[in-house]
């Protein structure tokens, strides 16, 4: 279970408090505040705080246009223009702070996005909970034969059962040894900062993660993509739902131009033009490598 009864009570108490403010608020985000949205078997995301809305993006963008230019285009049109032309600063005016509970190996991927403020649960100071990510059977896959960093077909039968048993047994044994090492019952007990090194990468950690909307969109563009690893993609998908309620116009533009769009190289654009003229273009005549051609064909169908 992602949250304990005590944590659920704390969330309920936090949500019962209201504060008077003159700053912009978003009803959709107010509904999300503090609520734990479950992810994987023990994980969650929670909105702790946020700043700005769609109008804040437009307000920042129009500063550089000068006084009296608000009628140039409506807010949604302006936001789509900014997204279409890869403007960044106006989107940086919005920020969000999330509380995330996630497996350590997912956190190691996540932290590669070095554009946020992060404070992680300290295993030097506190004892980690006995909670591990164990994949569901439908997410136990073989190595992909075409992508060195991806999954292939689903493992089945005895092999899948054996893998799951190994994951469960190794996690349990590692945590048993962790508890035995830090115990001060009849011994001094190993320092927590040393004992944690024996824990597996599927144990859960937690952090507060604060990021501006521009960099959040970059994170989501990579991690909500179908090629991203499943275990981080489900977190990105959960965040997408929150962002859609926070800045609906900006998220709609992001979904259209980034998640649903495609970026073509100069060679790819040339191939499209040749195809439109009726020319038969092949990988050999495209000037692309086999990998580039495969991806290009995936885009144009």
UniProtKB/TrEMBL annotation:
Entry keywords, A to Z: FAD, Flavoprotein, Methyltransferase, NADP, Nucleotide biosynthesis, Transferase
Pfam families: Thy1
UniProt-annotated binding residues for FAD: 89, 112-114, 120, 212-214, 218
Superkingdom of source: Bacteria
Ligand binding (dUMP): 109-112, 120-124, 196, 223
Requisite cofactors: FAD
Enzyme Commission code(s) on record: 2.1.1.148
Cofactor note: Binds 4 FAD per tetramer. Each FAD binding site is formed by three monomers.
Catalytic activity entry: dUMP + (6R)-5,10-methylene-5,6,7,8-tetrahydrofolate + NADPH + H(+) = dTMP + (6S)-5,6,7,8-tetrahydrofolate + NADP(+)
One BP term from GO: dTMP biosynthetic process
SUPFAM superfamilies listed in its UniProt record: Thymidylate synthase-complementing protein Thy1
Protein's pathway: Pyrimidine metabolism; dTTP biosynthesis
PROSITE patterns tied to this protein: THYX (PS51331)
Catalytic residue list: 223 (involved in ionization of n3 of dump, leading to its activation)
Keyword Methyltransferase: yes
Molecular functions (GO terms): flavin adenine dinucleotide binding; NADPH binding; thymidylate synthase (FAD) activity; thymidylate synthase activity
Family: Belongs to the thymidylate synthase ThyX family.
Role summary: Catalyzes the reductive methylation of 2'-deoxyuridine-5'-monophosphate (dUMP) to 2'-deoxythymidine-5'-monophosphate (dTMP) while utilizing 5,10-methylenetetrahydrofolate (mTHF) as the methyl donor, and NADPH and FADH(2) as the reductant.
Subunit note: Homotetramer.
Name of the protein: Flavin-dependent thymidylate synthase
Naturally occurring in which organism (per UniProt): Litoreibacter arenae DSM 19593
Species classification: Bacteria, Pseudomonadati, Pseudomonadota, Alphaproteobacteria, Rhodobacterales
């Amino acid at each position: 279970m992602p949250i304990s009864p005590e944590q659920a009570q704390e969330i309920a108490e936090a949500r019962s408090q209201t504060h008077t403010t003159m700053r912009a608020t978003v009803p959709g985000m107010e509904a999300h505040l503090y609520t734990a949205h479950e992810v994987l078997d023990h994980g969650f995301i929670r909105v702790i705080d946020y700043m700005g809305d769609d109008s804040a993006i437009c307000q920042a963008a129009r500063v550089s246009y000068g006084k009296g230019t608000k009628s140039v285009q409506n807010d949604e049109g302006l936001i789509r223009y900014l997204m279409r032309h890869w403007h960044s600063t106006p989107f940086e005016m919005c920020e969000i702070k999330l509380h995330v509970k996630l497996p350590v190996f997912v956190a190691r991927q996540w932290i590669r996005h070095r554009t946020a403020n992060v404070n992680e649960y300290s295993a030097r100071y506190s004892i980690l909970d006995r909670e591990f990510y164990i994949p569901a059977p439908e997410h136990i896959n073989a190595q992909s034969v075409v992508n060195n960093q991806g999954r292939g077909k689903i493992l089945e039968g005895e092999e899948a059962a054996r893998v799951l048993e190994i994951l469960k047994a190794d996690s349990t044994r590692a945590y048993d040894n962790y508890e035995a090492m830090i115990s001060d019952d009849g011994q001094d007990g190993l320092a927590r900062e040393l004992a944690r090194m024996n824990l597996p990468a599927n144990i859960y950690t937690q952090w507060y993660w604060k990021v501006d909307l521009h960099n959040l969109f970059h994170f989501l563009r990579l991690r909500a993509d179908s090629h991203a690893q499943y275990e981080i993609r489900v977190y990105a998908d959960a965040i997408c739902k929150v962002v859609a309620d926070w800045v609906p116009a900006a998220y709609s533009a992001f979904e259209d131009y980034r998640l649903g769009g495609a970026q073509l190289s100069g060679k790819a654009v040339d191939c499209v033009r040749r195809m439109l003229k009726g020319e038969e273009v092949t990988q050999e005549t495209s000037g692309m490598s086999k990998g580039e051609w495969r991806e290009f064909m995936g885009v144009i169908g």
